[in-house]
Amino acid sequence: MGPAPAGEQLRGATGEPEVMEPALEGTGKEGKKASSRKRTLAEPPAKGLLQPVKLSRAELYKEPTNEELNRLRETEILFHSSLLRLQVEELLKEVRLSEKKKDRIDAFLREVNQRVVRVPSVPETELTDQAWLPAGVRVPLHQVPYAVKGCFRFLPPAQVTVVGSYLLGTCIRPDINVDVALTMPREILQDKDGLNQRYFRKRALYLAHLAHHLAQDPLFGSVCFSYTNGCHLKPSLLLRPRGKDERLVTVRLHPCPPPDFFRPCRLLPTKNNVRSAWYRGQSPAGDGSPEPPTPRYNTWVLQDTVLESHLQLLSTILSSAQGLKDGVALLKVWLRQRELDKGHGGFTGFLVSMLVVFLVSTRKIHTTMSGYQVLRSVLQFLATTDLTVNGISLCLSSDPSLPALADFHQAFSVVFLDSSGHLNLCADVTASTYHQVQHEARLSMMLLDSRADDGFHLLLMTPKPMIRAFDHVLHLRPLSHLQAACHRLKLWPELQDNGGDYVSAALGPLTTLLEQGLGARLNLLAHSRPPVPEWDISQDPPKHKDSGTLTLGLLLRPEGLTSVLELGPEADQPEAAKFRQFWGSRSELRRFQDGAIREAVVWEAASMSQKRLIPHQVVTHLLALHADIPETCVHYVGAPLDALIQGLKEASSTKGRMVMSRGGELVMVPNVEAILEDFAVLGEGLVQTVEARSERWTV
Predict the structure, then answer these.
(1) Which pTM does this prediction carry?
(2) Is the same domain home to 425 and 486?
(3) pLDDT tens digit string along 441-456?
(4) Which long-range contacts (CB under 8 A, 24 or more apart) does 557-561 make?
(5) Range of 421's domain?
(6) 640: burial class by Cβ within 10 Å (0-12, 13-18, 19+)?
(7) What percent of the chain is modeled with pLDDT above 70?
(8) CATH number at residue 327
(9) pLDDT of residue 4
């Protein structure tokens, strides 16, 4: 046989189906149908279009597998709809880190490790002799008081370990942070470094020397300092790559002591490690009075000793369970949308990860659960468990030398102990923050149980800043006035424990004061502190007064909100003196219709709009009376629509009516068109007000 024609060779090369043309084509309809079939077979499929999958009859009608049946059953019971399941899965795809980016991050981490271990050492000097520091770097710590005992020398870290959510696979976009623990050699530390901030001074000097040398390396596009979870005694060094990967990742370096260097018994919440004589600059008291405990200071030291043990615990529980990792990622998105994880004392992603571990250990969560099931279980636990009253613990030891939960409840507002039994994971979380988390968890569970069509968007896709979540919001600024409030409220032990952070020291007493004053009007009081921005290594660390604005949110009860009377005890009761002391000049004796003579406070409010702003009067009066915070420092945002409604009412008093003749008499009747126009203006004002006080956050 000879070679095939060129056309047939071409068709064979391209792999197209060969079409045999008949010698005689049919005529009429049959011919047209045959011609149509020929064109269909001859034309190749359009590029980029999906082609239908050809299934045999047996494959098309085969029975579903057990996995498919379980998925359908799980979707029906737990997701309420297939749409919700698809939405959750797509969200997880968006927030997860891709494998390609992981490879680039791993390569950058290897470069960081090589450079950190090559930083040259520094000979030993006194802690107060810091002349060896180069001129282009500043110590990232407020050294107040400056005089402190001890010596310091720099040696390369004994071990460099990646810790945190990156290794666990639970970090979420868009901000990828990788925490790296640098274990300082034992030669740097001394036995009594736990006293009087000596350890924190050495930690800050260690970072300063690292920052100076790493900033000269062309690998890094940005080298700066930041506070770890807002704690001003624990700075960290932030490294970002140069070039197009600058926004890919932020590596945070955390110096930590060697394992078992600090004795846990010296860091119990009942112990003191900041001497009053050193902190206040006074001679020791000779009356033998005990030193006040420093539970928060002790906790900050303990946190650096358990970084690796916490990583091992989380890795043991989460590494083999993808559903648990997905649940932690969803919980982090839930916290971020509500801004509950921001600033000092926030409910962080690390806390919800440890909470998942606790629920797994108590068999309230199983390792085979899906991410959505984990989300529901954690929200249900938060909504029904008050850790300010009944704390929880991961410690399984029955050692009698371990402190009891009651000891931690005396020192902290919220109690959640780690597996060692010595560290309170929620030491920085205030009662107000936890109650806000509880409130949001209850609302989220109600939303999930309602099976609303937009439940997914409201739960995980809609930002909910404080201005949206609360009825009234007040901003305290400048924060320097809180220093005077600490002196007025005599918060010396709190200042000593918080290392001079007067904002943190005054926050608890101020919220307690306002909760007592607002009483039945208040449903929830929460606070928000913006995270302290990072700063250049050549600058001094930001001061406490420069940390932005302290924001308080008030969620009010409709019942009793507009009451102008605060009714106190009868004049002859012993509680009357406390009432007069609390309300000051506002308290006065009044006789009521039933003949009783009581202490009472009457607020000035003539109209309903003024009555809705009575909480403003309460807040400004109590802050000025008890904390020396003037009214000019309280920027109150409440009932913002009252002015708009009042303006519409004044305008409608003239144009909302019209004169008509009825039975020979002129009468005033409503002008329907004018009223509808007012409603349209009101609607536009509502939209503008909400948009002006909200922001959009995309996952």
Answers:
(1) 0.82
(2) no
(3) 999 999 988 877 788 8
(4) 557/520, 557/521, 557/522, 557/523, 559/520, 560/520, 560/521, 561/521, 561/611, 561/612, 561/614, 561/615
(5) 319-463
(6) middle
(7) 83
(8) 1.10.1410.10
(9) 45
